[in-house]
Structure prediction request, 546 residues.
Amino acid sequence: MKSIPEILLVDDNETNIYSLTKILDRLPVKLLSALSGKEALILAGKHNFTLALVDIQMPDMDGFETLKRLRSTPNHDQLPVILISAIYTEDQYRIKGMATGAVDFIPKPVSPEIIRAKVKVFLELEQQKRQLNQLVAELKKKNKQLAAEIKNRKKIESELRKARAKAEKNSEIKNQLLVNMSHEIRTPVNSILGFADLITNPDIEDVDKERYVHYVSHSSQNLLFLIDEILDHSRLEAGELKIVTGPCCIHDLLAELYEAFEKIKDQSDKNNINLILELAKTDKKLTIQTDCQRLRQIISNLLNNALKYSKEGEIRFGMEPKGNHIEFWVHDTGVGIAKEDLDNIFDRFKRIENISDLKASGTGLGLSLCKNLVTLLGGTIRVTSKPNVGSEFRFSLPMKMSTTEEAVHEDDEITQDTIDWSAHTLLIAEDEEMNFMFLQEALKVTGIHIVWAKNGSEAVEMVKTTPKIDVVLMDIKMPDMDGYQATAKVKSFNPSIPVIIQTAMALTDNQGKTDAQNADFDDFITKPINRTTLIKILSHFLKNKD
Ligand code: ADP
Prediction:
């Protein structure tokens, strides 16, 4: 709201005040009067005057003094004051008045027109001053906004630059990964092709043949490991790597890893390294609730690295319960890691090139995967290392005790040589002939009778028409009808027949898990199928039929 300008009239003579009021009362202003300088100062303390008309000749405090004091009251330091006088009309008083800060000097008797005109001019000036002040204030505000905008833009520009640099770095890293990957994949593939070709040579000795088969198998394992690592990496990136918790016997898991790595150590010509398993002494085997497969993957990765980055000495690994956690470690006496590399050793794609004379290949994904998996399992991982002395990776997981004492299939202790399943029939639903042939070969020792369905609907039909089928091994990806649908159909008319699904995709995938749960299968086995695992699972179901 626009306020009405207030004008202060100061004169000790009431008649003068009256006549000034009469002269000015048609102007759009509010007039306030004071009969002395003192009164004027009191009013100035309560109001915000636009203009003051002050008589010079007053008792106690004259007009000059009043003007001076008015100017020192709050908000009035710029107050325009017009001095009025009948006596002090000489130049020296005009000059004194101006020097004190008066904006004008009007002699008495006052001319109404002149006084009105002058007051109007000051009011206009005041209004312009106000507008100017308003403009300046707006300008200042705009300036402030502009400065903030510039600051913000600079921040965005810097963020964009950083994001671009990061994207460029990522693309560079990914290109590097592709180059690495094609090299990494080429190595085992070359070895597989080369030795597979040598095996076909009819002149080679049996011992050599055995060696070549062993190389092919070793290279295939490496290839598989590499592919799994890349797949897990992309699942993690997409936030799709899920944890499947269940009972996991830690003692058995570590013992199994010890056995596997003893073999890997031999196969990699690292026999001069001593592998030691350090198991905490507990009353009985420790079974906790965790994702056993992922835990195995973490320790395998760390053991793999320990082997890869050591030439001799020892590798110790083990576990120890600590309060409500279990601590795991993998310790080696290998090449070690320099202090400056330790901070980002868990970053994806991080590799330390040219470590000593070891030509260790890798993708730089292993440790980043380990860290992510440990985090998903609710734990933390850390490393201590010294170049040429060795490294120690330690991680701890929450110790959620399992209510089931035995881990899955732990009770299925079997010796393959003594198995005789010649009285049993297994239906294998598998569209790939090579895969079927492998399964047939793998189960030959058991003597089991095998029937083959090449797709889902054939499998359903065979279960319907062949009552002697004891168990079904069902592939998931098949033309016509997939394994989940086929399992559901089979179970709808024969709910008691055990169906084991075989899949190339780990059942940790969301969709896979849901489909699998809906299909109501009895067990699953992940491809590539390990013969021992397959026989263990089958024996579990066939045992119940004996
Ligand atoms: P990769 O082994 O495929 O290169 P990782 O992520 O497993 O990738 O390891 C990253 C890097 O950390 C390796 O390149 C290696 O330089 C270093 N590193 C990992 N484990 C060890 C270890 N036990 N001893 C020495 N260096 C290691």
